[in-house]
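Please, structure for the following, as tokens.
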Amino acid sequence: MAFYLAVDVGGTKTEYVLGDETHELARVRGGTIKRMRTDANNASQNLDKALTELTTLTGVPMKSITRSCVGAAGVTVALVTDWIREAFAERVGGSLILVGDVEIALDAAFFGGPGVLVMAGTGSNVAGRTTAGHLTTAGGWGPALADQGSGNRIGHQSLRETFLAIDEDRTTTLLPAILDLWELPGIEPLIGYANQIPAPDFSLLAPLVVSCAAAGDAVAQNVLRREAEDLAHLARIVIERVRRNDDRPGWLPDLAFTGSILEHVAPICDGIVDALRRDLPSLEVLSGIVDPILGALWRARIGELPSVG
């Protein structure tokens, strides 16, 4: 029997799935093995612990793996790729496919075919794959430069809009909610706290924005609406790039979503679709949220994608 290992390497955690030809046998979450985020010793310990847990759960020795697919950000960085290749060669049998995390997310949605994927969690990114198999992206430049519609940006913008409301003598339930979360006694301490270096984790404010918006707070609703519009703009850019690379008249790539914000914050997800369908009414959107590691498992099972030209 053939066994396949799928790995999704993140900056703070790593997801593992072990499967056979048709079934997922076990799933494990461990610490990061990305060498840009941790040292070699800690990465090795995290990898060993996860692989041991997979074997314990399934009885499958790692040396009996037929093929692995690892998706990771930073695959153009030798420190990342060299360590992964060496570490897996020592511990895991079979061949290794090493691709970007964007590719496995696209595979989970479109199985090697064309399409556009919007990703939004703590950060955000939009990626597309053309009919010829070429990748294109927009956004994803980090919190200082982009991350539209992300948890970090929603939180940061909520603070900006809260203080604009103060300037304009408007009330918002965001202010007392933020003060309560950060255990601050008033506006002056909040100003100092929000402007400190290093900055606080603005993404922690995102759930407050969602709850205040659901309760009818206009400031919070406006934050979510604008972030959805900004992320939709990036999606439109990628859709047009993918569309231009296909000679079918009127053809549109399908759209899919992944990430915690798009899974749990309906106003962002719905707002993106509404904004895009104003100009692209025939746009098809995949239901549900894509699980990127299933793209890595699919790729491990089929091997390298054939060249399309």
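The radius of gyration is 21 Å. The longest strand covers residues 24-31.
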